[in-house]
Amino acid sequence: MLFDNSENHVAVVRALSSKWSGLTRSEIIQITGLTNGGGLSKTIEELQYSGFIEEYLPFGRLKRDVLYRLTDEYSLFYLKFIEPMRKEGAGTWLTFQQKSTFRAWSGYAYESICLKHLPEIKKALGISGVFSTASSFYQKGLAGMDGCLIDLLIDRDDRIINLCEIKWATTEFIITKAYATELRKKVALFKHYSHTKKQVFLTFISTYGLLPNEHSLGLVDKELKLDNLFVES
Question: SS3 helix, strand, coil % of the chain, rounded to 5?
Fold first, then answer.
């Protein structure tokens, strides 16, 4: 039966929990010590079919560059919080909620939810009828230039790319002057590294939407929030 011999499955899941953005097959092998072959392929395939992990092909990359990400919410929560805190006393959870690690996990969990609701995102953008592909983007810095990491790109056949910035927050998200500069730089770096000739629209997906201000106006082309992910078809 599936997972009767689960040591390899657990090893892969633990490896993927160590890096939010995902791992390549070679990185999984390096971390787990598993051998490259049919056994590893079967383990990855079983984890995919059972909903524990998903694969993502970064924008402009070849099939061999595919990334695997841990997308099972409970596994993420268990490995990051329950397992490390099993021996802690009362009040531990309330204390942990205030730490940066919890905020980082919340951000990743929200990003994972967004990636699982791509049809709803496309519908909210009004592009359900336009053929498009979704991917992430990562480029290391080159020749003195900064690198670039993008959560989600929607590459459309109408010669438009939605560059999606995904942010979790407990209230309406506020774009500061510094963050607006960072976003403009991210768009510019993506255009430079990808060599795209398409129009690039900045789409902001947050839990409760943006609080409009002088820095968001004219920068964000479209904003979505959590409600857009859970709409009736």
Answer: 40, 20, 40
